[in-house]
Write a structure and sequence with these properties.
This protein is an alpha+beta fold. The protein has three helices and eight strands. The chain folds into two domains: 76 residues, no CATH class; 95 residues, K homology (KH) domain (GMP Synthetase, Chain A, domain 3). A hairpin with a 5-residue loop joins strand 2 and strand 3.
Length: 186
């Protein structure tokens, strides 16, 4: 199974999960999505992921690469999950705004193309530039319903601004990586 409900929360060694605090009316809701991911040989990976929100469950997610990269092609690749996450998050916000505004939408669909590039570490000759890049996300939101183009444009603009996944790639997002060797930070 590619994705299944986990019987347990992620087992952390270095991360302390921040307890969720219910926001007061008018405040932004802050939360985390925490996970532990590990290699299972070859290109197979598995993660247990869980938001720190009440009533959100932990899920186990399997990931793999295609056979050209040494994988067995048994699960989506990492960038498939990233791309789907962006699309799903935007659809969540579109759906929420449609519901909150009482809009009569008969069909809501999203098509997306995310362009990436990298220099494969398996190539014999390389100039040392191993940087991966995202060259853009092209999103097409296809809506059917009884609303004006102005209403739909406002809906899309609000939804994109509210979408945390989209905003994570549109804006510079702070990131940090800490390395540990045999349990000691290096």
């Amino acid at each position: 199974m590619i994705v299944s409900k986990s019987n347990s929360s992620p087992a952390f060694e270095k991360i302390d999960v921040t307890p969720w605090v219910k926001p007061k009316l008018g405040q932004q809701m802050s939360f985390e999505v925490n996970l532990v991911a590990e290699s299972r040989g070859g290109m197979k990976k598995v993660a247990v992921v869980e938001p720190n929100l009440p009533s959100w469950s932990a899920f186990e997610i399997n990931c793999d690469e295609g056979t050209a990269l040494g994988g067995r092609d048994e699960a989506p690749p990492p960038l498939g999950y990233l791309s789907a996450g962006i699309a799903f998050c935007l659809l969540t916000h579109l759906s929420a705004f449609i519901r909150s505004k009482g809009m009569n939408i008969t069909s809501l669909k999203l098509e997306q193309r995310t362009k990436f590039s990298t220099t494969l570490v398996t190539e014999a000759e390389n100039d040392g530039d191993f940087r991966g890049r995202c060259h853009g996300v092209e999103t097409h939101v296809l809506i059917k319903g009884d609303h004006s183009a102005d209403d739909i444009h406002a809906l899309a603009k609000e939804s994109e601004a509210a979408c945390m996944a989209m905003q994570s790639i549109v804006n510079a997002t702070p990131a940090s990586t800490r390395l540990y060797l045999n349990g000691a930070q290096i």
